[in-house]
Amino acid sequence: MQGLANPARFMRLSKVVQPWLALASVLLIGVGLYFALFGSPADYQQGQTVRIMYVHVPSAWLGMVGYTTMALASAVGLIWKHPLADLVAKAAAPIGASFTFLCLATGSLWGKPMWGTWWAWDARLTSMLILLFLYLGYMALQSAFDDPGRGARAAAILALAGFINVPIIKFSVDWWKTLHQPASLMKMSGPTLPPSMLTPLLLMVAGFTCFFVVVLLLRVRAEIIASKIRAIRLTQIHGSHESPLADRLAG
Amino acid sequence: MDSIATFFEMGGYARFVWPAYGLVGLVTVGLLVTSLRTLRVRERALAALQEEMPGRRGRSRDL
Amino acid sequence: MNRLFEIVRRDLRLALRQGSDSVMVVTFFVLTVILFPFGIGPEANILERVSPGVLWVTALLASMLSLDRLFQADYEDGSLELLALTPTALEVLVIGKVIAHWLTTGLPLMIAAPVLAVLLHMNGDGFVALLVTMLLGTPTLSLVGAMGAALVLGARRGGVLLSLLVLPLYIPVLIFGVGAIDAVVQGLESGAQLLVLGGILLAALPLAPLAAAAALRQALE
């Protein structure tokens, strides 16, 4: 952990790790796609639409992983005042939001043939919709300040408050759903998947996760460089006075 | 040839399955491309700034 | 404790002197609820069915109206910085502000709600439940709202931003507030829903002031 704490060392390490992760991601998604589209059977109830699951479930997973990453990084940034943690939180938000959106869109495309409607107030879909708004609020708050440090700290507090709220929201939506459960809706895929479907699903989840880390590293590197640029500009403005931020980032 | 056609038909659900995969492909590739492009643009901006300030060059060798 | 009362009294005095805040909030509440019969028709059975939801959703929106001014004036004229320098913890300041906010918005909303429930033909059994859920729910709205208000201090477009931050966090209160009333109207027990509402309030009571005080501290840095 200590090795990652230094931005310069993080840059070097991420450059080493990134190509391997990218390769793993391409291989896993490639093999996963083969199984998802050719090598797995159609569901006896849902027919070929079950193939949407192989992109829907990884998207949902990354939507939640993104928020968890954001909240954990925010906590580290708030408690230890670590600049790198703030940048990780900032970089994770748009990725997580994109996958949350994909989860909703693919869920809708799956819902139309299965439920006969583009949108059902299914407990899981509803929770994901609220999660998307938590992401949007986070990103809006972060970019609403002229001072990026201020935006990062305010957004970190919001991310933690949201993280505490996610289980409460999940619980309320589940409870609300059981009250209003329409009988006509078909149950989504049951808890146990046959291995022929589980294999492509796990491959896709693993591949998507590698992809998430690759993009996260890219974005964190871009954020580190942005703060370096800002630090250099600051020292240019203030002449010879060294800014502590520049020292910290220059490592 | 026939099997390819049935594959793309997706048992009559082609208009749901393919848009789902297409959308996921579009968004993920878009995410990757925009992230890469931002990184490249900023790397170039930083290099240009460091050209202007040769005195600070040594300190940022880790980039 | 004395400081707490002092803060509440100061805020109440300011609110009363400006006069308009509570009146505006209640007027907005009444007016928006009155829009619904125009939007969905005057049939008594439909209005009765949607009345708990309409009242609660509108109350959420109304309670947000005065939120962005919660810390704004004190932040702009510098008195927030002075308050932060006193030995009183910022958490106490936040709790004082929340109490003042609840007294000037939550309480008037609670008083107005039964009258509007009559206009929406709410089932007579639901009135007590409506009052109890509002008593348990509106303080949570003020608490969570105070956190949002502290976070957007000094932000661009703070007012709109505030609603984007706070509304998703209000959803549990809405679900259980409406759920308790619906249960009573249908002749069921509403104890579980009220317990959850109370639980959410008890959880927000320490957590929201902590978060709000942290947000204030970083706003003053």
Question: Characteristics of this structure?
Answer:
heterotrimer, B: 63 residues, mainly alpha, disordered C terminus, C: 221 residues, 84% helix, Cyt_c_biogenesis_CcmB (chain C), cytochrome c-type biogenesis (chain C), Cyt_c_CcmB_bac (chain C), Heme exporter protein B (chain C), heme transmembrane transporter activity (chain C)
Q: In words, what does this structure look like?
A:
The complex is a heterotrimer of chains A (251), B (63) and C (221). Chain A is mainly α and 251 residues long. Chain A has one domain (25-177, 196-219). Helices cover 79% and strands 0% of the residues of chain A. Chain A has helices at residues 2-5, 7-37, 53-80, 83-115, 123-142, 148-179, 195-237, 244-250. Chain A is globular. Mean pLDDT of chain A is 84; it is low at 183-187. Chain B has one domain (2-53). Chain B starts with a helix and ends in an 11-residue tail after the last helix. Chain C is mostly helical. Chain C has one domain (2-220). The chains are: A mainly alpha (251), B mainly alpha (63), C mainly alpha (221). Chains in contact: A-B, A-C. The interface between A and C is medium-sized, with 29 and 31 residues.
How many strands in all of chain A? 0
**Beta-strand proportion of chain C:** under 5%
Order of helices and strands of chain A: HHHHHHHH
**Count of separate structural domains of chain A:** 1
For the biggest sheet of chain C, the summary is: none
- The tally of helices of chain A reads 8
How many helical stretches of chain C?
Answer: 9
Binned, the helix content of chain A reads over 70%
- Please state roughly what percent of the residues of chain A sit in beta strands, choosing from under 5%, 5-15%, 15-25%, 25-35%, 35-45% or over 45%: under 5%
Q: What is the arithmetic mean of pLDDT of chain C?
A: 90
Quantity of strands of chain C, as a count: 0
Helix percent of chain C reads: over 70%
Family (chain A): Belongs to the CcmC/CycZ/HelC family.
Main location (chain A): membrane
InterPro entries (chain A): Cyt_c_assembly (IPR002541), Cyt_c_biogenesis_CcmC (IPR003557), Cyt_c_biogenesis_CcsA/CcmC (IPR045062), Rhodanese-like_dom (IPR001763)
Function (chain A): Required for the export of heme to the periplasm for the biogenesis of c-type cytochromes.
